[in-house]
Amino acid sequence: MAVLTEREIANQERVTFEEQQRAQAVRVDLRACPRNRRHAEGPAKANVNVDIQEAGAAARSAAAEGEATFVRLTGQAEADKRRAIGLAQAKAAEALGLAKATGYELREGPRQSATAAVAVAAAVGDGQIKIVPDVLVGGGDTGGAITGLAATLINALRTWTPAQAPRPWNRWL
Q: What does residue 17 show for φ and ψ, rounded to 5 degrees?
């Protein structure tokens, strides 16, 4: 009876070993199949892609914040610069006005005509007063049509540039 029991155990171990070999062969075949390998790799790749996308989004967000900070600081610096320039110009205009006012106060008394002459010369020098016409035409007839036409023609020629000249040949080119 012990021999029969050992023989039965040996047969069952042999059958179990053969089943294990078949299962291992099926596992090897499943792993070897590219489609099954792709299915096994899919979730891992998806997780890696999600991590990559999250890192890219964080990088773009940081770059946008940096750009916004740069624009804000640059704009503030430009505003400060313009404010400083404006204040300096205002102070200069105020000082000039006070100096002129002081000068005009001096014109009372014996220096009145000299102060007025200096004020007129300053206005002419600044270009605020025009004392000579741009075009002056004189001739034998006093105020005739030819004088007016000559003045208009000279004024037109004075402001004329070659770029304003009509080019009739352009339509053939």
A: -65, -40
